Amino acid sequence: MRFAILGLAQTGKTSLFRILCGPQTHPEAYGAHIGVAYVPDPRLEELARIYHPKKVTPASLEFLDAPALAGDPDKDATVFGQVRGADAFVHVVRVFGEQPNPGGDGADLETEFALVDLDTVSKRLGKLERDLKKARTPELELEHRIVEKARAPLAAGTPLRAQDWSAEERKLLSGFQLLSAKPLLLVLNAGEEDAPHLEQLPQKHDLGGWAGQPGVALTEICGQIEAELAELEPADAAEFMASYDLRESARGRLLHSAYGLLGLLTFYTVGEAECRAWAVPRGTVAVEAAGTVHSDFGRRFIKAEVLPWDVLVEAGGLAAAREQGRVRLEGKQHEIHDGDVLYIRHGA
Predict the structure, then answer these.
(1) What is the tens place of the pLDDT at every residue in 188-222?
(2) What whole-number distance in Å separates Cα of residue 117 and Cα of residue 295?
(3) What is the pLDDT at residue 26?
(4) 1-40+60-263 architecture in CATH?
(5) Model pTM score
(6) Which of 88, 90, 247, 251 is most exposed by smallest CB count within 10 Å?
(7) Could you tell me which CATH class the domain 283-346 is placed in?
């Protein structure tokens, strides 16, 4: 799952990218970079204490640091073309310095998204109408109806993620990679003076309405402090946070917000070789989870032994959990729950 980080110049978006992903990044076209951020997971740490594995691998998210926006659809066309394939967006807005306007900055990007999408949809409608004059097929009529439905809110400047769509409609629209249909995480980047009361920033800047919108999440961060924290050892980091009256790093909160925005859950595979967390969409079934671990496991799936992570920790291992009758044997269509541990049985 990939997030594209967007923002005007001097908002701290590239600093946020480095805070999330560290120095290990890879260059992409137009000067953008991509990196991987690992999601903090105390449950995985508990499981690793049982197995003492050679490797511990948390779930991860990809982030792309796009070039700075100019605030003009024509000038930003190249950036939008580059990030169109992302699964969701992180929009970094400034709440430090002189006269910050995070609500206005957020609304401006939504307007740009709607204008770009309206152009895409209008062009498609034009082609559909020409094709329908040649032959009226059920497929063309269905697509025309859905695309026409999308045009109305876009013309009013309303993002498509705020609309109700059926599964069929979402599937068709996803092929157009419409910007305003994708989930959005609005990140308020604050100065040091606001660090002790980050949670008050949405109210201070009248942004409470953003959090209630469909497909939108909001979180706060002090990029300057988080950048310094990223370079400290854990003991020093705790002391540093205490000096700012911070209970936790905002990095983990941001990653969990991003994780939840995409509707992801975590399941685990464990053993002496590796304990690993896997991120999958809610509604994933056992055979799909097996295919996430390895494509051969999905093709040759037989059954999965399943138990909650805390049950495994309490039992002290799979063998004890089996003896206690706490392990379930599930088939292909068993829906995975957050925190499940899977032992996958598959054919040779």
Answers:
(1) 999 999 988 899 999 999 998 888 899 999 999 99
(2) 35
(3) 67
(4) 3-Layer(aba) Sandwich (3.40)
(5) 0.91
(6) 247
(7) alpha beta
286 Cβ neighbours under 8 A, 6+ residues apart: 301, 304, 306, 330, 331, 332, 333, 334, 335, 336, 342
Do 210 and 107 form a contact (C-beta atoms < 8 A)?
no
Sort 302 into a burial class: Cβ within 10 Å, 0-12 / 13-18 / 19+.
Answer: middle
Q: Which two tokens stand for residue 43?
A: 């449950």
Q: Where do the domains of the chain lie? A: 1-40+60-263, 283-346
Report CA Rg, the chain: 23
Give the integer Cα–Cα distance in Å for 117 and 281: 26
Q: How far is the C-alpha of 33 from the C-alpha of 25, rounded, in Å?
A: 6
Q: Can you read off the two tokens belonging to residue 97?
A: 């310095």
Q: Which residues pair with 221 in a beta bridge?
A: 189
Q: Is 89 helix (H, G, I), strand (E, B) or coil?
A: strand
Least confident segment among 85-89, 149-153, 241-245, 298-302:
241-245
Q: Give the pairing of strands 274-281 and 55-57.
A: parallel
> Mean of the per-residue pLDDT values for the chain?
93
Helix and strand counts by DSSP (H, E) for the chain:
15, 13
| Lowest pLDDT segment from 2-6, 32-36, 52-56, 177-181 | 32-36
Looking from the CA of 63 toward its CB, the CA atoms found within 13 Å total: 30
